[in-house]
Design brief:
By secondary structure, the protein is α+β, with helices and mostly antiparallel strands. The chain has 3 domains: 3-50; 65-176, no CATH class; 260-350, Sandwich (Jelly Rolls), CATH 2.60.120. It contains 6 helices and 17 strands. Strands 3-4-7-5-6 form a 5-stranded mixed beta sheet, sandwiched between helices. Strands 8-9-16-12-13 form a 5-stranded antiparallel beta sheet, with no helix packed on it. A hairpin with a 4-residue loop joins strand 10 (282-291) and strand 11. Helix 1 packs across helix 2 and helix 1 runs parallel beside helix 3 (52-60). It is globular and about 70 Å long. Mean pLDDT is 80; it is low at 178-184, 186-195 and 197-215.
């Protein structure tokens, strides 16, 4: 069994395999805590596009930092989650979010921070029960609106978790940034903001005097005041004409595409081919949705690749592209999904 076919299993149950909670037998070969490193090495050597090696490093490297996160449950008890963080210029700034079963729920991204990877594990039994009840049938997110018992509390505890993750991340990343300047007391003026907090609207005026101890005054010469009936001479009697702005580039035309087919690649779960032949030259972008036995609506696309050129297309949620296409030239795009579920794909042209 190749690393490519084992990839969905490793990505979704990496923590369970690492902690010895799961052993999988495939064609007589056991994938377990003892053999997991060989599968990860195979993924690295074959340069398969996967975040699994980064998350595995977080769990095994002596350079990784283990950060305890304490959260208060609805019973008033405090329970723990653990966050494992590791730095590398090659990492993609993602955190694998897991319950104690070792099943990954989703990958949380932090676009404002770079060069790290992380693994979060909810440890407390009540924490696990609360967050499990926030999950949809696909088990791919934590949605407080699904927690029927107390949606307000669910929003509160998820916000608290994300806030503590963000604070830990900022401290972790700033420790490595030697160019950062720390001004004692400045945190009273500019507080940390996390994903769920509103933008800063107020500044604490009482903190300003206690923080700013020194300053320099720069004198700015004001423009001469123009009095009524006077004329201020032009300092440059022979001004050069202003350069004309560059002409705007011609607007790209959208290609006309009327027939798009999609189908599952044989023997490769979670991999689909999208095929179409443009009727005109131009630019094209596609929107991909799914409906099927295991999931419907939105999907998570891990990779979109034009087979003829090996060009990786941009992915924005359900949108892939844009791409340049030629009239009459058949285009085959290979889609790799985050999870190996059975989908019936609905693919449409979008702007």
């Amino acid at each position: 069994m190749t690393a490519t076919l084992l990839l969905p299993l490793v990505e979704n149950y990496l923590l369970a395999l690492f902690k010895g909670k799961l052993i999988v037998n495939v064609n007589g070969k056991a994938i377990s805590k003892q053999t997991l490193h060989t599968v990860i090495d195979d993924i690295r050597q074959k340069d398969i596009k996967s975040l699994a090696p980064e998350f595995y490093d977080c769990l095994t490297s002596s350079d990784a930092e283990e950060i305890p996160i304490e959260l208060e449950t609805d019973t008033g008890d405090k329970e723990l989650a653990k966050l494992y963080l590791l730095r590398s210029d090659q990492y993609h700034a993602r955190i694998s979010m897991n319950r104690s079963t070792g099943m990954r729920i989703f990958n949380k991204d932090r676009n404002s921070l770079k060069n790290f990877a992380g693994v979060l594990e909810l440890e407390g039994p009540r924490l696990n029960d609360i967050f499990r009840k926030m999950e949809p049938p696909a088990h791919d997110k934590w949605d407080p609106e699904l927690y029927k018992k107390d949606k307000k509390f669910a929003r509160k505890i998820r916000k608290a978790l994300y806030k503590k993750i963000n604070e830990s991340l900022r401290r972790f990343v700033q420790e490595e940034n030697v160019e950062a300047i720390s001004l004692k007391g400045l945190e009273n003026i500019l507080p940390l903001v996390n994903d769920d907090e509103p933008a800063l609207t107020k500044i604490n005026p009482e903190a300003i005097d206690s923080v700013i101890k020194g300053y320099k005054i720069k004198t700015i010469n004001p423009k001469p005041e123009k009095k009524k009936g006077t004329r201020i001479p032009n300092p440059d009697p022979n001004p050069k004409p202003k350069p004309k702005p560059d002409p705007k580039p011609p607007r790209k035309q959208n290609a006309r595409i009327n027939n798009i087919r999609s189908f599952s690649a044989a023997g490769a779960p979670g991999i689909y081919n999208v095929v179409f032949t443009p009727e005109t030259d131009g630019e094209a972008a596609l929107e991909v949705k799914a409906s099927g036995e295991e999931s419907s609506g939105s999907i998570e696309i891990a990779q979109a690749l034009i087979q003829s050129t090996s060009q990786n297309l941009a992915i924005d949620g359900e949108k892939i592209g844009p791409m340049e296409v030629k009239k009459g030239e058949r285009v085959v795009i290979q889609l790799k999904m985050e999870k190996p579920l059975r989908y019936a794909l609905e693919v449409n042209v979008t702007k």
